[in-house]
Design brief:
Elements: E1 5-8, H1 24-37, E2 41-45, H2 51-60, E3 69-75, H3 87-94, E4 99-105, H4 108-115, H5 119-136, E5 139-145, H6 147-153, H7 155-167, E6 172-177, H8 187-197, E7 202-206, H9 213-222, E8 227-230, H10 244-254, H11 262-265, H12 268-279, E9 296-297, H13 300-308, E10 326-327, H14 335-344, H15 354-369, H16 377-388, E11 396-405, E12 414-423, E13 426-434, H17 437-450, E14 460-469, E15 478-486, E16 491-498, H18 501-523
Parallel strand pairs: 1-2, 1-8, 2-3, 3-4, 4-5, 5-6, 6-7, 7-8, 9-10
Antiparallel strand pairs: 11-12, 12-13, 14-15, 15-16
Helix pairs in contact: 1-2, 1-12, 5-7, 6-7, 9-10, 13-14, 15-16, 16-18, 17-18
The structure holds acetyl coenzyme *A (ACO) and pyruvic acid (PYR).
GO molecular function: (R)-citramalate synthase activity; 2-isopropylmalate synthase activity
Protein name: Citramalate synthase
Organism: Syntrophotalea carbinolica (strain DSM 2380 / NBRC 103641 / GraBd1)
């Protein structure tokens, strides 16, 4: 088996993505996480670019890492200077990394238009920059920027630029698809030609502008490339970089390549989410391998089959990358979805039980009204228990009223809710103010229920989403409210639908409180 060296550039190319910026502390934490994951090289930044990146290299030296080598990134020297006087090259050496990676121009068009120098001058600056670095740094990598576009425009010159790097004794030459326009079938003949002229180990760095960055990286490995660059979650300039969260499992589980241990591979989803969290971005649900939906089964035909054998609709075992299989319920469900959910909620249900069909029909009817249970599993659990007649009625709401008013000269509107809640034989009448009508209703319901169920105090409303569903033929538009609640142990979602937003919120809130009481009573 060939071992593949993984080179992560989340902290450099990843930060070139719109909306992504990491503090030095974030970069250090991500570097430690990637070290635990087993990444071989971490490109920490461009020290010649900004003080934050200089400080990353100062700080990371104080941290003991298991096996990862830290790489600093920069460019070949500027045309009008010499390597020893070039500020960028000097800063790279001063940052004292394990590895230096510099990029240089391969494409004659770029040499003429971007650098505005002659083709020979460019060969000199690639060669003497790398020779100079090799004298000061143990391991030096060369990123051949725009390699594939350069090769297509002028193959002889593109190869000469790689030879200029090879003659300087670099440790790896990385073929870059900088503009991300290369398609997978174009790589094998080009890489085969490169291998006739270059014996230095080769790497790949692909961008995702044609949505082929992962495919191109895998094809390159299939052509004998041994060093793969990419980022966690595919963050990177424009449409992003090659996504290591897809490349790593494909290399290990499909191509039989050595890179991480199985245990490290099983932490991939956690690493992906950690990086999303520090980037302050919502994880992409539909991300292959590590996303929430990567192994979520919705169609009844799929659910029925995966219950017989999971591989019928799963390309790998989700546990291999730290993910799980999930069954969703919707109007595309069959009995298998209902039975799978019942099992998840510890509810005994038989496929031949007429109640299974009844629940399925009720589900489809509610989805037709605008309900959606994919993000509201707690409401679906309650729906099943109501249908089975096993839900303990912890409380009922006799009625509520919400007032929202604003007077001239007042900054904010005033919101107040009153509710009448019945618990056993007692009716509790409470009123509360809130920051908006739904918040007031939430406060009033809590105030009433806390007298009977003090554990309600532990519960918080974490997220509130409203969606106005377009009117169908002959029907008014309706509002769907999804609420996420949580306590110290769990988070759960509930849903309410009505043509009135307060009423829709009321249904979702009542389910949220019901579910809290149900789960606490099941646990006791
Ligand atoms: C393919 C990639 O993703 S490469 C990485 C790209 N990342 C970044 O650019 C982020 C960090 N960059 C920066 O902080 C800044 O651009 C700096 C500090 C590097 C340079 O800033 P400035 O000196 O103000 O130059 P500016 O950004 O305007 O232009 C880029 C300069 O680099 C030169 N340059 C570009 N590529 C190379 C190269 N491979 N070798 C040498 N010089 C290069 C350009 O010719 C231009 O110099 P000039 O204006 O003297 O002709
Ligand atoms: C080096 C690099 O980031 C690129 O060519 O895209």
């Amino acid at each position: 088996m060939t071992a593949i060296r993984l080179y992560d550039t989340t902290l450099r190319d990843g930060t070139q993505a719109e909306e992504i910026s990491f503090l030095v502390e974030d970069k250090i934490r991500i570097a430690q996480k990637l070290d635990d994951l087993g990444i071989h090289y971490i490109e920490g930044g461009w020290p010649g670019s900004n003080p934050k990146d200089i400080s990353f290299f100062q700080e990371i030296r104080k941290i003991s890492l298991r096996q990862t080598k830290i790489a600093a990134f920069g460019s070949t020297r500027r045309a009008k200077t010499t390597p020893d006087k070039d500020n960028n090259l000097r800063t790279l050496i001063q940052s004292a990394p394990d590895v230096v990676t510099i990029f240089g121009k391969t494409w004659d068009f770029h040499v003429r238009e971007a650098l505005r120098i002659s083709l020979d001058e460019n060969l000199d600056l690639i060669n003497d920059s790398l020779l100079y670095l090799k004298r000061h740094v143990e391991e030096v990598f060369y990123d051949a920027e725009h390699f594939f576009d350069g090769y297509k425009a002028n193959p002889a010159y593109a190869i000469k630029t790689l030879q200029a790097a090879e003659q300087a004794g670099v440790d790896c030459i990385v073929l870059c698809d900088t503009n991300g326009g290369t398609l997978p079938f174009e790589l094998p003949p080009i890489i085969a030609e490169v291998r006739k002229h270059i014996s230095t180990p080769l790497g790949i760095h692909s961008h995702n502008d044609s949505e082929c960055a992962v495919a191109n990286s895998l094809v390159a490995v299939d052509c004998g490339i041994v060093h793969v660059q990419g980022t966690i979650n595919g963050f990177g300039e424009r449409c992003g970089n090659a996504n290591l969260c897809s490349i790593i499992p494909s290399l290990m589980l499909k191509m039989g390549k050595e890179s991480l241990t199985n245990e490290q591979l099983a932490s991939l989803r956690e690493v992906s989410r950690f990086v999303y969290e520090l980037a302050n971005l919502v994880p992409n649900k539909h991300q292959p391998f590590v996303g929430n939906s990567a192994f979520a089964h919705k169609g009844g035909v799929h659910v029925s089959a995966i219950q017989r054998h999971s591989e019928t609709y799963e390309h790998i075992r989700p546990e291999r990358v730290g993910n799980i299989s999930r069954v969703l319920v919707s109007d595309l469900s069959g009995r298998s979805n209902i039975l799978a959910k019942a099992e998840q909620f510890n509810i005994k249900l038989d496929s031949k039980d007429p109640l299974t069909i009844e629940i399925l029909e009720r589900l489809k009817e509610l989805e037709n009204q605008g309900y959606q249970f994919e993000g509201a599993e707690a409401s679906f659990d309650l729906l099943m228990r109501r249908a089975l007649g096993t839900l303990r009625p912890f409380f009922s709401v006799v009625g509520f009223r919400v007032i929202d008013s604003k007077r001239e000269g007042e900054d904010k509107p005033f919101s107040e809710a009153t509710v009448q809640v019945k618990v056993g034989g007692h009716v509790e009448h409470t009123a509360a103010e809130g920051n908006g009508p739904v918040n007031a209703l939430d406060h009033a319901l809590r105030k009433a229920l806390e007298n009977f169920y003090p554990q309600i105090k532990d519960m918080q409303l974490l997220d509130y989403k409203v969606r106005v569903l377009p009117a169908g033929q002959g029907t008014a538009s309706v509002t769907r409210v999804l609420i996420e609640s949580g306590d110290a142990d769990l988070r759960w979602g509930t849903v309410g639908v009505s043509d009135n937003i307060i009423d829709a919120s009321y249904y979702a809130l009542v389910d949220a409180f019901q579910y809290k009481l149900l789960k606490d009573s099941d646990a006791s």
